[in-house]
Amino acid sequence: MAEDTFTGKVVIVTGGGSGIGAATAHRFAAGGATVVIIGRTQAKLDKVMSGAPTGSTLIARVGDVSDEEEITGLVDAVAQEHGRLDTLVNNAATCEPLGTVSDIDATGWRRVMSTDVDGVFFASRAALPHLRAVGGSIVNVGSASGLGGDWGLAAYNAAKGAVTNLTNAMALDHGAEGVRVNAVHPSMISTDMTAGFLQNDAIVAAALNRVPMQRFGEPAEAASVITFLASPAASYVNGAHIRVDGGLGASNGNPHIA
Ligand SMILES: NC(=O)c1ccc[n+]([C@@H]2O[C@H](COP(=O)([O-])OP(=O)(O)OC[C@H]3O[C@@H](n4cnc5c(N)ncnc54)[C@H](OP(=O)(O)O)[C@@H]3O)[C@@H](O)[C@H]2O)c1
């Protein structure tokens, strides 16, 4: 990516205080964008700011994507302060509580839905008028868990499945308005979200046995696909779903038999 790919562009990354969101913010900033990261924890945002590429423009705003009024106000304020909004990356999410439908209570179910689905809806709705004005785009961070089921992740599977098809709906509805909407679908990237799983040797061994590339991904490897989808290089890409999973999704689920 050239240093000036995003010069003059304004980008919002929700959940930009860690992991994939932080790596994405740094990559957009390295490409010349003015980047606003939104998350609920000031200390995490500060850490991302301190690691920003030299000379880049990275701004932190504390906010909760599940709070309709707050996220709408933040998105509008960014567009007003910086004169435009070119890209919204809907990255903030939680996978907790884990569990089956029998395990999860209504509060836990709502926590996942309000962050992972309501948050994408609220931020996208707020961003669309600004994106229409400049021919911008949305990149949703879905998941392999939104393309198929996991054991014991019912709420997260439901939420990320909704993000997958909301991406399709928005690509259809807003393509003619000049707004592209695409999604990346990571699996097993080393971040805070997966730190617990990655400390469990049995889970690591079982997971690596299923991933053709036999390693976990790095946040930067998801970030590079997200920035590609937002870039001029993807100007005719709309409604695309790109897996960032080391080949996990290429399997039909059968074990090694030869
Ligand atoms: N890591 C993986 O293997 C993997 C696989 C598939 C999909 N994904 C997806 O990748 C995205 C990024 O996850 P990650 O792995 O980078 O995990 P992460 O490091 O935990 O990042 C999630 C970020 O979202 C923020 N966040 C959570 N709830 C929020 C809310 N209500 N409002 C605003 N920000 C909120 C968190 O910060 P605060 O708590 O401070 O707000 C955190 O910085 C998520 O959409 C996740 O579902 C990850």
How would you characterize the overall build of this protein?
44% of the residues lie in helices and 14% in strands. It is of the alpha/beta class. It has one domain: NAD(P)-binding Rossmann-like Domain (Rossmann fold, 3-Layer(aba) Sandwich), CATH 3.40.50. Strands 3-2-1-4-5-6-7 form a 7-stranded parallel beta sheet, sandwiched between helices. Helix 1 links the parallel strand 1 and strand 2. The structure holds NADP nicotinamide-adenine-dinucleotide phosphate. Its EC number is 1.-.-.-. Pfam families: adh_short_C2.
- N- to C-terminal separation? 40 Å
Main beta sheet, described? 7 strands, parallel
Low-confidence runs? none
Q: Name the CATH superfamily assignment.
A: NAD(P)-binding Rossmann-like Domain
Could you tell me the strand content as a percent range? 5-15%
CATH class: Alpha Beta
Integer-rounded radius of gyration: 18 Å
Total strand segments: 7
CA-based shape? globular
Question: For this entry, what is the oligomeric state of its chains?
Answer: single chain
Query: What's the CATH topology label?
Result: Rossmann fold
Q: Please list the strands of the largest sheet in the order they lie side by side.
A: 3-2-1-4-5-6-7
Helix content: 40-55%
Q: Give a list of the ligands.
A: NADP nicotinamide-adenine-dinucleotide phosphate
Question: In terms of structural class, how would the helical and strand content be classed?
Answer: alpha/beta
Q: What is the number of helical segments per DSSP (H or I, 4+ residues)? A: 8
Overall CATH architecture: 3-Layer(aba) Sandwich
Q: Please write the string of helix (H) and strand (E) elements.
A: EHEHEHEHEHEHHHE
- Mean pLDDT, all residues: 97
**Whole-number total of structural domains:** 1
